[in-house]
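Example record for the data management plan.
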Amino acid sequence: MTPEQLLATSGLLRALDLIGVVVMGITGGALAGRLRFDAVGFAVIGIVSGLGGGILRDLILDQGVPAAFAGPWYLVCALAGAAFSYLFVAEGRAWNHAMTVLDCLALGLWAASGTAKSLGAGLDVLPALLLGVLSAVGGGAIRDLLVGRIPGIFGGNPLYATSALLTALVTWAAVGLHLPGWTILVAVALGSGLAVVSAWRRWGLPQNQEWQVTLSASQMKAFVRRVRRSERNRVASETDAIPVIGAEHARDDFAADAAGIDITADEYVQARDGSGAGIITPGTGADSPDPAGR
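Corresponding structural encoding:
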């Protein structure tokens, strides 16, 4: 039995799939409650949260009616989760932990099923991996967009998309190597386990500000001086000679750098005038005599 066949025929995995839909319906309904939506809003947000990723995947694959509409159970489970949040306010640490674990299990299962289904439809590796991740996190992203929020997978959720990608990669390896169907459970366990641990430890990918280097103007000038000084030392050590600036040159940039003297951009342009006039003495801003004697 192939991984795709196991995902399609296993009663246990089917039950976990439906439980995941219920959980996402509950989380979507909880968001609708915080935003004070009415019953229609609860229903729409619950359906989008639980089924949005799978529906989008099936529409892209264009293999007929999406699985969410092929029978009543998916819609019933999504609406049941939304109705639960509409009627009850469930809080508490144990409840939140249980919901997180079930959410992570559904994440891994949806990533595996989406990847296997995409590979079975004949997609190449990268599109199949993308659809696998989309199956897992697409519903939550669409839900956030509907309520005017930045999707949590862009930085709000700890490694959810990364966990889905891990499951998709292991699923691709299992399908590509023609491994037994039960190996798909390894892919689900790895992705779901990473999602649970990252939620517990609050792991996340580094943001771009953590990698950016910001230099002020004075820091940049000092950096350029150090580079030039290092280059002069290297040339001197390799040639046993010290470069000499001839009288025909308008100014000695290296000498100014070595002395740590700065001039303004206007002074530099004036000193570089091809006519030879207006040469600036470094560090003083005063006109120096014309080296040609004019």
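Summary line stored alongside the record: Residues 245-252, 275-294 have pLDDT under 50 and may be disordered.
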